[in-house]
Amino acid sequence: MDRSQKTEAVAQLNEVFNEAGVVVVTRNLGLTVAQSTDLRSKMREAGASYKVAKNRLAKLALKDTQYEDLSDLLTGPTALGYSEDPVAAAKAAVEFAKTNDKLEIVGGAMGGQLLDEAGVKSLASMPSLDELRGTLVGLINAPATKIARVVNEPASKLARVFGAYGAKEAA
């Protein structure tokens, strides 16, 4: 990798750190290519990305971002999971680490808050942004359906009474 490629890699990583809602640092302890590909696809499905970057370049990219404290975690064979959704990357990484002992969660950060392994796992247990939106829409929609049911109930009772009288006279 020559100097221009390194500069470009640092610029790309810096852009990632400026846009990300959460960054998860993982340690690869001998993942095969197939396992790494599987992890990347699971991250993509969750709306996150996974990147193996040189620690030195990542530390340079972290400067002057809200994730600057992550540089202490970048030792050994590490990789970064990141997403704009504050839960997606953590959830995907923790789910994959449960089934594969070759991936270790080192820590992470959400905004300016540095997280240890337990913090990342507790973040992963929270509902995602889309799940929260769905819950809110359901809560907002519930009173409207109850009102519609209350308004329609007297009319349906009348219809049943008229139907019963009609059936009684027909018999």
The DSSP helix count reads 6
Q: Strands of the largest sheet, in order across it?
A: 2-3-1-4-5
* Strand elements, count: 5
- Please tell me the total number of domains: 2
By CATH, the superfamily of the largest domain comes out as: Ribosomal protein L10, N-terminal RNA-binding domain
Q: Note the run of SSEs as H and E.
A: HEHEHEHEEHH
Percent helix: 55-70%
Output the keywords.
171 residues, alpha+beta, 5-stranded antiparallel beta sheet, 6 helices, elongated
In short:
The chain is α+β, with helices and mostly antiparallel strands and 171 residues long.
Describe what this molecule looks like in 3D.
The chain has a five-stranded antiparallel sheet, with helices on both faces. The chain is α+β, with helices and mostly antiparallel strands and 171 residues long. The longest helix is centred in the C-terminal third of the chain and has 42 residues, at 129-170. It is built from six helices and five strands. One of its GO terms (molecular function) is large ribosomal subunit rRNA binding. One of its GO terms (biological process) is translation.
Fold topology:
Layout: H1 3-19, E1 22-28, H2 33-46, E2 49-51, H3 55-62, E3 78-83, H4 88-99, E4 103-110, E5 113-115, H5 117-124, H6 129-170
Antiparallel strand pairs: 1-3, 1-4, 2-3, 4-5
Helix pairs in contact: 1-3, 2-4, 4-5
